[in-house]
Amino acid sequence: MECCQCQGIEAKFDQAYVSEQLENYRNDGLKKTAIQLIDALQAEDIQGLSLLDIGGGVGGLQHALLNSGVRNAINVEAASAYLEACKVEAERQGHAAAIDHMQGNFVEIAEDVPAADIVTLDRVICCYHDMPNLVGLSAKKATRFYGVVYPRDIWFLKLIVQIYYNFRHWVNRNSMRVFIHPTEAVEALLRENGFSRHFHRNMGVWQVAVFKRK
Ligand SMILES: C[S@@+](CC[C@H](N)C(=O)[O-])C[C@H]1O[C@@H](n2cnc3c(N)ncnc32)[C@H](O)[C@@H]1O
Questions:
Q1: Residues with CB under 6 A from ligand 1
Q2: Tell me: the pLDDT tens digits for 146-192?
Q3: Which region holds residue 104: left if phi is over 0, alpha if psi is between -120 and 50, else beta?
C-alpha cells in the first residue's frame, strides 16, 4: 500500500492493538453502534444476501450478519494484523468457509473487489483521507444496501480529533490522521450513486445509517 495514510493505519493497528480489540470483542461483544447497524439491516430482508465489509477489523459485524442469514462475506482490510485476527476469529466461529479475505487499501484494489448486495463500513470512513473515492467506489459495489457507522459532523468533535488523536499521532510520528468528513458530502455521494437513506440514528459521537438502492 503506497499511501501515507495506509502506512499509518498499518502502524496504528499493530499486533498489540489488534490483540486487545479481539479480546474486547470476545469478552464484551459488538459495540452498540454495530448492533444498531445490524438491527437496521435486519429490518430489511437480508436473507441469502452477500456482504462486502470494508475495514472489517476483527470481523464482528461479518459474524453477526452471517448468523442473521447473510450468505457469504468478503472482508477487505488495510491492516495486516486485523486481517490475520479476522481469519482466526472466523475459524473460531465456524465461518471460515463463508468469508473471503482481501488485504489492501480498498480504494487501490477496488477494481478487483467483487460487488455485493450489502456493503458496510463500520467506523472506517473516519480512518481515510480520500472520502470521495472510498465512499464513491464502495457505493458502486453495493447492489442493494449500504450501511455505515461514521462520526457526526460536529465542531467540538473536530476539535477533539485534532487535539487528542491527530496531535498524538503527529508526536508519535504516525502518518495516520482521523477525519470528520462532512455528513452532507457523504450523503450527496450516495444519492449520486442511486441510494436513498432508509435509516439514520445519532449515537453519541457516531451516526449510524442505512441507504437503499432506489
Ligand atoms: C477503527 S477500525 C474499525 C474496525 C471495525 N470495522 C470495527 O468497527 O471494529 C478502522 C478499520 O478500517 C480499516 N481501513 C481504513 N481505511 C481502509 C481502506 N482504505 N481500505 C481498507 N481498510 C481500511 C482499518 O485497517 C481498520 O480495520
A1: 9, 13, 54-57, 76-79, 82, 105-107, 122-124, 127-128, 134
A2: 999 999 999 999 999 998 899 999 989 998 999 999 999 999 999 99
A3: left
Residue 52 three-state SS: strand
Name the residue ranges covered by the structural domains of the chain: 4-213
Going by C-alpha positions, the residue among 95, 86, 89, 101 that lies closest to residue 52 is: 101
CA of 78 to the centre of ligand 1 (A): 7
Distance CA 92, CA 74 (A): 17
Closest residue CA from atom 1 of ligand 1: 123
pLDDT tens across 33-49, in order?
Answer: 999 999 999 999 999 99
Atom of ligand 1 nearest to the CA of 134: 19
- Homologous superfamily (CATH) of 4-213 is Vaccinia Virus protein VP39 (3.40.50.150)
- The one-letter amino acid code at 29 reads G
Which residue reads 454495530 in cell numbers? 34
Residue 11 has φ and ψ, to the nearest 5°, of -75, -40
